[in-house]
Amino acid sequence: MSLQIFGLAVSRGVAIGRAVLVASSRVDVAHYFIEPEKVESELARLHAAREVVVKEFENLKRDLPPDAPAELPALLDVHLMLTQDEALVEAARTWVVDRHYNAEWALSAQLEVLARHFDEMEDPYLRERKHDLEQVVERLLRALIPGEQQGVTAAPSAVKPRDFGGEDPLVLVASDISPADMLQFKRSVFTGFVTDVGGKTSHTAIVARSLDIPAVVGARQASSLIRQDDWVIIDGDAGLVIVDPSPIVLEEYRFRQRQSELERERLARLRHTPAVTLDGERIELLANIELPGDAAAALESGAQGVGLFRSEFLFMNRASGLPSEDEQFEAYRAVVESMGGLPVTIRTVDIGADKPLDRHGHDRHDAMINPALGLRAIRWSLSEPGMFRQQLRAILRASAFGRVRLLIPMLAHLSEIRSTFEAIGQARQQLLDAGQQLGQIEVGAMIEVPAASLMLPIFLRHFDFVSIGTNDLIQYTLAIDRADEAVAHLYDPWHPAVLRLVSDTIHFSRLAGKDVCVCGEMAGDTDFTELLLAMGLRSFSMHPTQIPSVKQRVLRADTRRLAAKLHEILAADNPQAASRTAFGAAAIAPALA
Ligand code: PEP
Ligand code: MG
Q1: Nearest CA owner, ligand 1 atom 6
Q2: N or C: which end of the chain has fewer CB within 10 A?
Q3: Is residue 351 located within the same domain as residue 284?
C-alpha cells in the first residue's frame, strides 16, 4: 500500500531507491559495498567479531566481584544469548551475501529490522530488550572497528551498486543526521536522504544541497513509517516522500528523473559563459565549500572563486584533537592553489549550535541551554584565544600562495570586532617574528545578526568587505531556530523585515564603496536572483551545483529594469507575490535558447 510523507524540500531532484534505515547514533558506521570476491572474508570479520564479544561477556561473567548485584549475571546471560542468536549475526550474513554490504552495515541493517520487531511487542519487558540488543550491536561494531570511531576522513569506499550489475540504488532514512555525518556520505552509496527532523537551512540540509543529492528533511514520522528495504521515491523539489509507489507513479518519477538530468546537462554548457546581464553588469558567482576537495567542484561549475569556505568542517568529528596549525595551513593552501589565482574567502570556524565539534563531546547541541543563541562562531573563537590565533596564523600563511580573504562569522558587538583585530594583529606579528612570508589579506565580516546590519556603518569602517549570511540573518531576525522543523513554516526569507535588512546592507555597503556578497542559501535560490540583482547585489556565493541555474537567470536579467521595481516589492504586504508579478516576463528578457 503506497504511502506519502510530507517534509521540507531541501535538495532538488528525484531519488528512487530502497530504504536503508539507520539510527542516528549509528549513521557514522561505514556504509560501502564490498567486492563479490570479498564476501567470504567479510563474513569471517563478522564471525570473528562475534567470537570477540562472546569472549568479552564470558570474561566479564567470570570476573564478576562476589558483591556484584544479583541481576548482573542474568543480564550478561541475556547479552550473551543475543550475541549468539541466529537472528542477529547469522541473519546479518544475508546482507553481506545477497547485497554485498560491508560487515558493519550488515549488522546495523539487521539491528534496524530486529528493533522494529521489538517495538511492536506488547509485553513491556520484551520491548525493553531492544536496548540490550542495541548494546550488543554496539559491542560488535566496536569489535569490528578497533580503536577510534569512524570519522569524516574514514569515509566509506566509493564502490557503487551498479558496479555489481543490477543492484538497486539506495536511499538513507534516519531520524536525524549531523552535518558532519552528512559530509561523510559524499563518497557514499546513497542516492537520496530522508530525515525526521531538520529545517530548510539547517546545516544538514545545506550539506545535502552541496552534495547535490535529493533530500527531504523534517519528514516527522518517516523513520518509523518506512521499513528497511521499502521502495521509496524522494521528491526533493516538492518535499515529498512516496513509500512503496505504484508502477504508474514510479514511471512518472523515472521520467522526471531523466528530464532533470537533461536539464542539468543543458545548464552545464553555460560553464564558460561569463555571468553578464543584458545591460552589461558583470556578476560575480562564487562557490561555498566545506572541505578542500570541494575546490574541484567549484572550478567545474565555473565559479569565479570561493565566497565561503566553511572551515569548521575541518574541525568536526575528529578522532584525535583539533587540526594543528600546519594541518590547517595545508588544507587552506590546497584550496588556494587549486583555485589558481581566484579569490578564496576562508571563514574562521563557526562551531556550535547545529554544528557541534563532536557529537559525543562536551559541546553537544542538547547540552547547551540555547545553542543557536549560545557560544557559537566568533564567540566560540574568542573564548578559545589560542585556538583562534592558531587558525588565523594558518590562514595568514596560506595568503602567501594566492588571493585569500578572511571572513569572521556572527559578529554583533564592537568589542568583538576589536578583539578579532587584536587577535589578527597578534597572529600576524607571531608569523613575522618567525620570519614567515605573508600575502595581502582582506578582512570581512559576516552580517548574520540584525544588530550587525543595523550598525553597518561601524562594520564598514573596520572591514574591507561584508558577506550577508541570510541563513542566520533570517533565524535571528524572526527568532526561528533554523534547525527546528516545528517552526520551519515560520522561517521565511520573504519576510519584509528580512528583505529590508538585506536590501539596506547591500545599498549602504555599495554606497561606502565596500564589496558586499550574499553567501546564505538565498544566493543560490533562483527565486531570489532578480530581487537580489534589483537590490544592487553583484556578488553571489552558493553551492557549486547551483551556479549554472543562477547564471542562466543572470544572463536573462536587465538590472536597470529590475531595480525600478525594488521599492514596490519592499513595500508590499506580500513581497513574494509582488516579486513574481514584477519580475515576470515584463522585467526579464525572454529565455535564452
Ligand atoms: C549563513 O548563515 O547564511 C551562512 C552562510 O553561514 P552558515 O550557513 O554556515 O551558518
Ligand atoms: Mg551563518
Answers
A1: 469
A2: C
A3: yes
